[in-house]
Specification:
The complex is a heterodimer. By secondary structure, chain A is of the alpha+beta class. Helix content of chain A is 33%, strand content 29%. A three-stranded antiparallel beta sheet of chain A has the order 2-1-3, covered by helices on one side. The radius of gyration of chain A is 17 Å and the shape is elongated. Chain B is an alpha/beta fold. Chain B contains five helices and eleven strands. In chain B, the strands form two sheets. In chain B, strands 2-1-3-4-11-10-9-6-7 form a nine-stranded mixed beta sheet, with helices on both faces. A two-stranded antiparallel sheet of chain B has the order 5-8. Classes of the chains: A alpha+beta, B alpha/beta. Chains A and B meet through helix 1 of A and loops of B.
Chain lengths: 94, 221
C-alpha cells in the first residue's frame, strides 16, 4: 500500500519562534488586530510504501524521532492518508 | 600530548584550516578526515570545526550524524578519546547525541559576529583541564543558532555532573544558564559556540584560545 505522509514540525512550548512572532506583529498593519498567536513550522511531505497504515505510521514516527524533528526543541504531528492506486504514479511524478 | 589530531571535514565545513593554523604551532599534526571516511585512523584527538555541514539543511548539524565518520567519532569518544566540537561542530555533537541539549536560534533573531567575554565554569573537561575556574577569556562568536536549550531535567543533570565548561559573561544569544560550552559526563567530549581558533594569534586581537587548545591537546607547560 502507498501512503501520503505529511509531517508538521513545530516548536516545543517555550522554544522561540521569532518568525511567528514577527509575522504576528506585522498582521495588525493589514488590519488584522484579532490574531493572538502565529506559529511557523515546517511541513514535510513524503510518499511511503508499507504493508499497512500502522506500519507506515510507525516508520514515519521513527523518522521523526531520529531525523525529521529534534525532540529537544521541536514537536511533530503525522498525517497519513492512503493514496488511490490509480493516481499514485501521477502524484509521484507531479 | 596529542600528536595527531583528526580534523573532520563535512561538505560545508569552513574552519578546518583555521583550526590547523591554530594548533600546529602547539606541536599537533592535523589530519584532515572527510566525512565519508568510515575510520579516523591512528589519532590522539578529534576536532569538528565550524561551518555549515551539509548546508545546515533541515536543522543545523542534523544531517551530519549520518555521515560515516560520525560512527568512528562516537566509538573514539566512547573509548575516552578527546573530542572537540566548535560552533557547527557543537551543533553536530548535540544532534548526534554525544552531548545533551540543542542549539536554537539566537534571541533577537540575529546572526552574531562579535567578541564574547567568557568565564571558565569547570576545569574538569579536556578543554579546560589546564585552566582554573573563573578564568576569563575573550573569544569571538559567529553564529545564528547558538542559543543553548535543554529541558529542566537535563539541565539538572548537567549541573549535577559539572558539565558546564564555559559561560558567557554577558549573554549575547539567550543561551540557557549563560552556557557557551558543555561537556559530556566523562568530560572528554566538549562543544562550544565560541571560536578559539580565531583567538590564537596576536594579529587576531586575542590569544585566549591558545590556552584552551593547550588543555585539549594536553600540551606540557
Amino acid at each position: 500500500m502507498r501512503f501520503n505522509a505529511r509531517v508538521e514540525v513545530g516548536h516545543q512550548p517555550g522554544i522561540l519562534d521569532p518568525q511567528g512572532a514577527t509575522v504576528q506583529r506585522a498582521l495588525p498593519a493589514l488590519g488584522y488586530d484579532n490574531v493572538s498567536e502565529v506559529q511557523i513550522g515546517k511541513s514535510i511531505r513524503l510518499v511511503i510504501d508499507a504493508a499497512d497504515e500502522a506500519t507506515a505510521r510507525r516508520q514515519v514516527e521513527e523518522m521523526c524521532e531520529h531525523l525529521l524533528a529534534n525532540p529537544v526543541i521541536e514537536t511533530y504531528e503525522i498525517f497519513l492518508s492512503e493514496m488511490a492506486s490509480d493516481t499514485s504514479a501521477q502524484k509521484l511524478n507531479g | 600530548m596529542a600528536r595527531r589530531v583528526a580534523v573532520v571535514v563535512f561538505p560545508g565545513t569552513n574552519c578546518e584550516l583555521d583550526v590547523a593554523r591554530a594548533i600546529e604551532p602547539l606541536g599537533a599534526q592535523c589530519v584532515s578526515v572527510f566525512h565519508s571516511e568510515p575510520v579516523l585512523g591512528a589519532v590522539d584527538a578529534v576536532i569538528i570545526p565550524g561551518g555549515f555541514a551539509h548546508g545546515d539543511y533541515l536543522r543545523t548539524g542534523a544531517l551530519a550524524q549520518f555521515s560515516p565518520i560520525m560512527k568512528a567519532v562516537a566509538t573514539f569518544a566512547a573509548a575516552g578519546g578527546p573530542v572537540l566540537g566548535i560552533c557547527n561542530g557543537f551543533q553536530i555533537l548535540t544532534e548526534t547525541g554525544l552531548l545533551p541539549g540543542a542549539l536554537q536560534k539566537n534571541v533577537g533573531l540575529r546572526f552574531i559576529c562579535a567578541d564574547a567575554a567568557l568565564t571558565v565554569a569547570s576545569n574538569r573537561s579536556v578543554l579546560t583541564r589546564k585552566m582554573s575556574t573563573n578564568d576569563r577569556l575573550q573569544i569571538p562568536i559567529n553564529h545564528f543558532e547558538g542559543n543553548f536549550i535543554c529541558d529542566r531535567e537535563t539541565l539538572a543533570q548537567i549541573h549535577a555532573n559539572d558539565q558546564v565548561v564555559l559561560r558567557y559573561a554577558d549573554n549575547p544569544n539567550g543561551s540557557l544558564d549563560d552556557i557557551a560550552g558543555i561537556c559530556n559526563e566523562a568530560g572528554n567530549v566538549v562543544g562550544l559556540m565560541p571560536h578559539p581558533e580565531r583567538a590564537s594569534d596576536p594579529i587576531l586581537g586575542s590569544v585566549d584560545g591558545v590556552a584552551l587548545f593547550k588543555s585539549f591537546l594536553a600540551v606540557d607547560a
